[in-house]
Each structure stands twice: as structure tokens, then as C-alpha cells.
Amino acid sequence: MTAISDLEIFARVARTANMSAAGREMGLSPAVVSKRISLLEERLGARLFQRTTRHLTLTETGEGYFKRVVDILSLIEEAEDFVNRRNTRPRGVLKVTAPTAFSRLHIAPFLPDFLARYADVELEMHLTDNIVDIIRDGFDVAIRIGELRDSSLVARKLAPDHRVLCAAPSYLASAGMPKTLADLESHNCLLAGAQDMWRLEGPDGQTQVRVKGNIRSNSADFVRQGLLAGLGIGLRSTWDIGAELKSGALEVVLPNYRSVSAVSIFAVYPCREFMPNKVTVFIEFLAELYGRNGYWERAAGSPLRSAAGDDAAPNAAAFEAAAADVPAPVAAAKSRVSGRKSGNNRAGRETA
Asked: Is CATH 1.10.540.10 the classification given to domain 92-159+263-293+332-350?
């Protein structure tokens, strides 16, 4: 088998078209370079260079060999770069795009822990409820909330995104509490983004409900404010309305139903073999922080179960106690992350 060093010598000679110049670049004498090239040709049983007293050019065989050698050397360089990256402290500017409300509630409060652990990383946060082209706009990673779909991007699931039907007591007092999904047809439903169909899971499995209302927005914060103002019923994430459920500002409607389990929170990044360490540690930090079920889904140490799951659906009182009890799990999550100091799915359709 040909030694890697011989391939490097051959490639250097091919690029410079001069054995003396190649030797100077590699710290070898012209005689050593010439001897190594001759031994390589003898081993391969083919002439790689045409030699004259003034010129050194690749033969047709040499040109084909050179193209393949360049690929081999490039792969070796990438492999070494991978090892170097793994052994290098995360550093540099990390560009992140994420939904506004989710960032305010479940990223920003924990950044002191992250930045204390990785002091050489600088965060550049772009907050929007719209999907951006992370490759075109130069983002390292995006936090997206929705369902997976085919894409040229790669995604890692960070936590499930359970959504429940909810409304303000003032709205329910005037419009009445719906008893069945069919009752939603007579209610004003606040819509997020382009959605006009709510896909839910309940006692009888998955179902779809077409809804309508006089307010539509791409902003999760705006929809939540509309709900708090008593304007209608919404389908909102438990991570978004926990405090409002706990205070009684919002009430769960039709508690046996929630969004389909395919909706989750993902970290999405460009499809490339070697990710910078700054991206890897940020994704790992969030995954560890949120836990498999999302800390906002926990109360008294027990995860909330899906309405269509193995366990019985929670009743309204149990749900409000569990989903709304955010402060204690948050503190526990922060303590867990702070205490552990250390030196292919596809991208989804965002529906936050």
C-alpha cells in the first residue's frame, strides 16, 4: 500500500511542476523527492510524469491519479480537523434564530449558566416567529417548533411540544364552555400563522377540527394576549401558558384533547459532517436543560401524559397543576445544568 507521505510528495510535485520547489516546501532534497516519485511509479507500474530537462508534466494517467489523490488528502485533512475541533474549546460567535416567546421563557433565563460554562462563545440571537433560511442568512442553528418534514437540514428533537385548548374565564362566561369538539364551530378561535385546522389527539385517537375566528397572527405572544383579553379560544403550548393557567388567567378547554404528538421542539442546523463545537455544546445544553419530556410538563416529579397515550388523560385540575407549575422545575433544571460543568432527522414546519 502506498504511504500517505508518498501521496503528499506526489501531489506537491504535481502542483508545483518542479521537484526542487516541491522539495523546498516539504523540507526534502530534490534527490529524495525524485527517488520517492520513481519508487511510486514503479510500485504502481505506470508513468505519472513526463520529464524533460526543462519541464515536468503529468501524464494522462498521472492526471487521473492526481485528482483521486487530492480527494484522499482532503479526507485526511477533514479527519484531522474533526479531532482538533473535538479537542478545542468552543469559541466564536454563535448565530441562533428562535421563536420570540419561547426564547424569552426558556432560553434567555438560562444563558448566564451557558455563558459561564463557555466563556469564549458569543451569542447573536435573532428572534422571530417566522422561518428563516439559516443557510442563506448565515445562522449556525435554529430553534423551531412544529412537525418534521423532508429538508436538506438536520434536526435534533429537544422536547415534545404539547398544546391544549384554552380561554380566559371572561370569554367562557359570555360564550359558554364547549362540551365537545363540535361546539368549537360556534366559538371564536384565535389562529396562529396559516393554520385553520387544529390536529388533535383524544380518547378516540387523532382528529382534525376546522376552526375560524376574527384574529390571526404569526406571533405567539400576540395570540396569548388575545386569549388573556377574552377574545376567544386558542390552541397553545404548555411551555407558553403555564403561568396563566396557574394564576387562573386562562382555563383549559376540553382537557381530554391536545395537539398531535408529532409536534415538537427541534434544534435545526445545516447538514454538514463536522459541526463547530460552539453549535454542539449549545444544542447539548438545551437538550440537558429541557429533559426528554420538557421541564414545563412536570409536576411533583411526574411527567404529564398525552391524551392519546397509555395513561388516562389528565383532568382539567390535574393538568393546570402540572403544566403550570413551572418555577420549581425551572429551578431544578438550572441547578442540574449548572452543576455539570465541563471543559438524521429532517427539519420541521414551524407552527409556534
From this structure: no
Residue with cell 391536545: 258
Supply the DSSP string of 50-74, one letter for each residue.
EE-SS-EEE-HHHHHHHHHHHHHHH
64-87 pLDDT per residue, tens: 999 899 888 888 877 776 676 665
pLDDT digits (tens, 9 = 90+) for 321-332: 444 344 334 444
What distance in Å separates the CA atoms of residue 217 and residue 235, rounded to the nearest whole number? 13
Cα separation of 157 and 266, whole Å?
A: 4
For residue 108, give the DSSP letter. G
Q: How confident is the model at residue 141, as a pLDDT? A: 93
Given a contact cutoff of 8 angstroms between Cβ atoms, the answer to whether 69 and 3 are in contact is no
CB 230 within 8 A of CB 171: yes
Structural contact between residues 92 and 278, judged by C-beta atoms closer than 8 angstroms: yes
Question: Do 232 and 153 touch, CB atoms closer than 8 A?
Answer: no
Q: What's the whole-model pTM score? A: 0.61
d(CA 23, CA 272): 35
Which CATH number applies to 4-86: 3.90.110.10, 1.20.1540.10, 1.10.10.10, 1.10.357.10? 1.10.10.10
